[in-house]
């Protein structure tokens, strides 16, 4: 894709996100069921998560298994602040994003200062994160205490027809933000620095790339975007539990999606998200009980085996 | 563009086209076992002879058919299939055949909301029935509420949190199960000699933890407060995370606390794990033990092997004393279910609380529709509020919106005796007397 | 006293997880693949044990005669796929994850999602124990510890003292140079992967002696096993065992002193600290890397 096309794509997505709910309302539920908004939201959610993951891990090559931790912080921020504290949803979302960013910065401070923490060691460090947060969420009654937290349905802004449209739009705006950040990074020195770090960090440092600060930017953005997206998704789910939030599903999914879509390209994760979400939806709707997961697993294995040459 | 990438994109495109194209017209298939109810397309062909006719009424729902709750999900599926078959054989609902579109939520709570949204908005089902397991039910409730659909649900007993007025429980432990359960157990223990100390062991999952501790942000009594009030001393308070498989430490703690009663507020095979760990400590078992929501089959097997009278709760067991208060149909259904469960390879085939909860949910739904005479959800909801329901396995129940529709509980205690679960409490329903510690 | 009991019981229980971790650690360290399907193979080991132990009259230990060879082959086959396609470490993770999902679903289709356990008459070990002074050790955990010890010692002997073993170590450190010496890494790799599968069969069997299994059990093992692999040092055979004992003991102790939910917090914080300060694992001798 040549230089300027990227912006066009992002802008068109923005337009779609803003207009689709009203368009759907005009067409009517018969032709355009509300469920498609749910499906669209899922695609946008995974696109946000995978794109944010890809900043550090795809561009920068620092494989992170901790996406679930940042996502979970956003989820619980929304759940606790709106469910137990009566905060507005947008305030909770912003706080969720900021808290996740703070966590990311802490991880970065610890991990990036030490030379030895490269490659698989960094990956393992981030793998431990969700498990730690899981235990914390369980132990702390202020956060969860183990029973789960109900996320109340927020008052939908009056210009939007349904709750589903609202969640779609909120999630969509964050996805657009994530894509924009990814696109911008890939076109500027921030991204180039990360690519250089990916290819060979020692060389990058030798030629004067400020590796530490750029990795910190990347991980901070990862945390921020993942947290924002997680907070919105909490409203969609409605009821969150520690084990349902801090498990390996999100970390593994974002890796799968990004690898399938392409890790070096800013829009790669978006493509991957579209693909995987639709595949899962088709398998579920096909009522292939007992086969859907087999097919999904085989498709995943096969595609990675084949895609390895390109990705 | 490299070939593999191109292929991937093409496949993706194909999927998108398929996603937008196919579903509206697709016949929603049932998972009906035998074959009297059939899949019906838009035109509504049925093959039940001389039975219901016309466009089928579609009831949508999800169950955990795979994954962590799969073992219990399959019981609900078999019960549901049996119910729908009998219903159609008896003329259907409002004269029309009923088709049950059940999806697998894979025991993942996040999937539940999506599935119900899909069923309601995309598949346009006429009615819905709830999933299994408290967190899943709590996830489905807001969707039902948004669309104004009546939601009969099987097993969420955490009454105060289920505040959607058209949610109807099929299993009720009253409005305050956190008070009822410990008190009932305390009543039973008082009828025995020498039970003075209690160890409370708790699974920190939302389905059970409130029975020990109440909800975290609410000041309400629960087991840990109630036992001392009733004159029992709590000698150990041990919470553990859901999915725990390490029981040795807990067993050791219990053994040194030496309680007369262990109240295990747990799920699934927690009781099995704990019992085996205790037995490994030189054959130790506490004098009395209670497990709140165990998987009945495995626990029965282990307790029977060790001739140990462990207790649990139940809403229905096919014991004579329980059956005699109910209609003849109850026994017949229980037998039919057992046969089907055996065919399906389910290890434990007895028709008990879980299956009964499923049956209740269906009856509530069907009676609501028949009473209202239509598929209008508000009408159904109002009818149920005004008239309650007559449940084959429980009797008549009333739905009071002030109590979030949770009806007067009929909960009993059951015990493993001579290789079977037997109802032992309250005394007027007991099939056999409560056995105290065997020394 | 109960603290000591809890710590020791926990350590023995940890040896079972160390055994699970052994196979993973070996293929990761020497063959450079992160094989999540290993958990699927352990799961198969458990289910096959339950399936065979009763009807054939072999009992759980006897069923090893079948499960070990079968899963040896399974492990080798998985590795064959990785090797043929020259899969990178990251991709091996993703592919094996796909395989794991497939295995879990197949197990569920065949055996249902219901809880499965060995009945008492076939499994007399579950409730027996060994008594030493005031301490009581459940027999299955003692057996697990014995198996783990034997296998670890055998593996160490193989790696340090045999030509094939040292060749594998060389291969693990530097592929190109090892190949230049004419070592048939392909065959060695298959053998090692097969051995890993065999340990999985044993681990699965040992698990059934004490617990119930469901298809999802495979996923529940992942976190703890990874923690042990990391703490022990990837590819460090003896270290894996020590790490398992340590994690088990700490878990047991923490469970009694605080609550069971605190155990994972402590264990994974330990993992984080170890990664920061001793990324080669807590037990690796400085020599290797």
Could you say what the CATH architecture of chain C is?
Orthogonal Bundle
**What distance lies between the first and last C-alpha atoms of chain C, to the nearest angstrom?**
41 Å
Poorly predicted residue ranges of chain C: none
Query: Class by helix and strand content of chain B?
Result: alpha/beta
Biggest chain pair interface: A-B, 51 and 56 residues
- Count, helices of chain C: 12
Order of helices and strands of chain C: HHHHHEEHHHHHHH
Strand composition percent of chain C = under 5%
Number of helices in the DSSP assignment of chain B: 14
Largest sheet geometry of chain B: 4 strands, parallel
| Major sheet details of chain C | 2 strands, antiparallel
Q: From the structure provided, what is the oligomeric state, counting identical versus distinct chains?
A: heterotrimer
Strand order of the largest sheet of chain C: 1-2
Describe this structure in words.
By secondary structure, chain A is mainly α. Chain A is 74% helix and 1% strand. Chain A has a two-stranded antiparallel ribbon with strand order 1-2. The mean pLDDT of chain A is 83. With 439 residues, chain B is an alpha/beta fold. Chain B contains 14 helices and 14 strands. Chain B has helices spanning 3-21, 70-89, 109-122, 134-147, 177-190, 209-213, 223-229, 248-257, 270-280, 296-305, 320-323, 328-343, 353-372, 377-387, and strands spanning 57-63, 98-104, 127-129, 151-153, 167-169, 197-203, 233-240, 261-268, 288-294, 311-314, 389-391, 395-397, 412-417, 420-425. In chain B, the strands form 5 sheets. A 4-stranded parallel β-sheet of chain B has the order 7-6-8-9, sandwiched between helices. In chain B, strands 2-1-3 form a 3-stranded parallel β-sheet, with helices on both faces. In chain B, strands 10-13-14 form a 3-stranded antiparallel β-sheet. In chain B, strand 1 (57-63), helix 2 (70-89) and strand 2 form a beta-alpha-beta unit. The radius of gyration of chain B is 23 Å and the shape is globular. Chain C is an all-alpha fold and 289 residues long. Helix content of chain C is 74%, strand content 3%. Chain C has helices at 2-31, 37-53, 59-62, 64-84, 89-111, 139-161, 163-173, 175-180, 185-210, 217-232, 237-257, 262-277; strands at 129-132, 135-138. In chain C, helix 1 (2-31) packs antiparallel against helix 11 (237-257). The model of chain C has no long low-confidence stretch (mean pLDDT 85). Chains A and B meet through helix 2, helix 12 and helix 13 of A and helix 1, helix 3 and helix 4 of B.
């Amino acid at each position: 894709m040549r230089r300027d096309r990227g912006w066009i794509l992002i802008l068109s997505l923005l337009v779609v996100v803003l207009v689709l709910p009203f368009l759907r309302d005009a067409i009517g539920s018969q032709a355009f069921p509300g469920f498609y908004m749910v499906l669209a939201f899922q695609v946008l959610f995974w696109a946000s998560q995978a794109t944010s993951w890809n900043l550090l891990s795809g561009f920068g090559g620092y494989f992170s298994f901790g996406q679930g931790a940042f996502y979970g912080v956003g989820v619980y921020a929304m759940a606790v602040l709106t469910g137990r504290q009566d905060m507005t949803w947008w305030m909770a979302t912003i706080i969720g994003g900021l808290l996740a960013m703070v966590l990311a910065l802490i991880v970065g401070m610890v991990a990036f200062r030490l030379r030895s923490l490269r490659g698989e060691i960094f990956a393992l460090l981030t793998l431990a994160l969700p498990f730690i947060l899981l235990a914390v969420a369980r132990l702390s009654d202020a956060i969860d205490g183990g029973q789960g937290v109900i996320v109340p349905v927020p008052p939908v802004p009056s210009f939007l027809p349904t709750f589903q449209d609202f969640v779609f739009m909120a999630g969509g705006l964050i996805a657009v933000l994530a894509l924009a950040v990814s696109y911008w990074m890939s076109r500027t020195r921030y991204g180039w620095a990360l690519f250089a770090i990916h290819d060979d960090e020692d060389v990058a440092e030798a030629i004067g790339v400020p590796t530490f600060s750029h990795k910190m930017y990347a991980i901070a953005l990862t945390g921020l975007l993942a947290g924002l997206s997680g907070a919105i998704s909490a409203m969609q789910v409605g009821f969150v539990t520690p084990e349902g939030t801090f498990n390996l599903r999100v970390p593994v999914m974002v890796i799968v999606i990004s690898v399938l879509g392409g890790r070096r390209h800013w829009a790669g994760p978006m493509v991957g998200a579209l693909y995987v979400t639709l595949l899962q939806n088709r398998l579920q709707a096909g009522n292939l009980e007992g086969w859907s997961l087999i097919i999904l697993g085989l498709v995943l294995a096969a595609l990675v085996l084949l895609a390895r040459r390109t990705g | 563009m490299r070939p593999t990438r191109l292929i991937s994109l093409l496949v993706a495109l194909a999927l998108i086209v398929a996603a937008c194209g196919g579903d509206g017209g697709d016949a929603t298939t049932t998972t009906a076992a035998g074959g009297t109810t059939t899949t019906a397309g838009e035109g509504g062909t049925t093959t039940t002879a001389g039975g219901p006719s016309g466009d089928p009424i579609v009831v949508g729902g999800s169950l955990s058919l795979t994954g962590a709750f799969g073992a219990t999900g399959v019981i609900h599926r078999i019960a549901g299939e049996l119910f729908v078959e009998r219903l159609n054989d008896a003329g259907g609902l409002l004269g029309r055949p009923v088709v049950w579109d059940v999806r697998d939520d894979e025991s993942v709570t996040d999937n539940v909301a999506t599935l119900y949204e899909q069923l309601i908005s995309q598949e346009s089902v006429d009615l819905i029935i709830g999933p299994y397991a408290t967190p899943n039910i709590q996830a489905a409730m807001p969707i039902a509420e948004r669309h104004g659909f009546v939601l009969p649900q099987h097993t969420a007993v955490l009454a105060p949190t289920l505040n959607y007025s058209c949610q109807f429980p099929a299993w009720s432990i009253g409005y305050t199960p956190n008070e009822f359960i410990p008190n009932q157990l305390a009543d039973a223990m008082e009828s025995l000699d020498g039970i003075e100390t209690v160890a409370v062991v708790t699974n920190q999952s939302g389905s059970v933890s409130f029975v020990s501790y109440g909800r975290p942000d609410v000041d309400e009594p629960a087991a840990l407060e109630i036992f001392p009030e009733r004159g029992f001393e709590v000698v150990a308070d041990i919470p553990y995370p859901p999915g725990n498989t390490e029981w040795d430490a807990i067993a050791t703690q219990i053994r040194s606390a030496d309680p007369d009663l262990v109240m295990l507020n747990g799920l699934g095979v927690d009781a099995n794990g704990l019992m085996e760990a205790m037995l490994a400590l030189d054959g130790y078992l506490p004098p009395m033990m209670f497990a709140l929501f165990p998987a009945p089959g495995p626990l029965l097997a282990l307790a029977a092997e060790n001739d140990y009278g462990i207790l649990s709760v139940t809403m229905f067991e096919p014991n004579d004393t329980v059956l005699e208060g109910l209609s003849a149909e109850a026994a017949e259904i229980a037998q039919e279910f057992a046969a089907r469960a055996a065919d399906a390879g389910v290890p434990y085939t007895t028709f008990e609380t879980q299956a009964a909860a499923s049956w209740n949910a269906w009856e509530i739904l069907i009676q609501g529709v028949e009473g209202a005479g239509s598929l209008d959800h508000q009408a159904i909801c109002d009818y149920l509020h005004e008239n309650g329901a007559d449940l084959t396995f429980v009797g008549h129940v009333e739905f009071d919106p002030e109590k979030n529709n949770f009806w007067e509980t009929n909960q009993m205690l059951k015990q493993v005796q001579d290789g079977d679960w037997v109802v032992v409490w309250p005394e007027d329903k007991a099939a056999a007397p409560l056995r105290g510690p065997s020394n | 006293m109960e603290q000591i009991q809890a710590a020791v019981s926990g350590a023995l229980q940890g040896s079972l997880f160390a055994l699970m971790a052994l196979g993973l650690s070996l293929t990761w360290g020497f063959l450079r693949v992160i094989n999540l399907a290993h958990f699927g193979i352990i799961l198969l080991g458990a289910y096959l044990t339950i399936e065979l132990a009763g009807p054939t009259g072999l009992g759980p230990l006897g069923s090893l005669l079948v499960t070990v060879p079968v899963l040896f082959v399974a492990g080798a086959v998985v590795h064959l796929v990785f090797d043929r396609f020259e899969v990178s470490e990251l991709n091996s993770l993703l592919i094996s994850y796909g395989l794991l999902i497939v295995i879990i679903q197949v197990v569920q289709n065949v055996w249902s999602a219901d809880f499965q356990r060995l009945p008492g008459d076939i499994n007399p070990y579950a409730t027996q124990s060994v008594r030493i002074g005031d301490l009581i050790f459940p027999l299955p955990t003692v057996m697990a510890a014995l198996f783990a010890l034997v296998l670890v010692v055998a593996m160490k002997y193989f790696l340090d003292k045999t030509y094939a073993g040292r060749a594998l170590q060389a291969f693990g450190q530097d592929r190109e140079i090892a190949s230049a010496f004419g070592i048939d890494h392909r065959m060695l790799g298959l053998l090692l992967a097969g051995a890993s599968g065999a340990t999985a069969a044993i681990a699965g069997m040992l698990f059934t002696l004490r617990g119930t299994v469901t298809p999802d059990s495979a996923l529940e093992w992942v976190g703890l096993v990874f923690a042990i692999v990391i703490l022990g040092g990837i590819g460090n055979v003896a270290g894996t065992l020590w790490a398992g004992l340590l994690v088990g003991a700490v878990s047991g102790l923490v469970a009694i002193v605080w609550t069971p939910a605190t155990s994972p917090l402590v264990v994974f914080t330990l993992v984080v600290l170890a990664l920061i300060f001793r990324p080669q694992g807590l037990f690796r001798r400085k020599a290797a890397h």
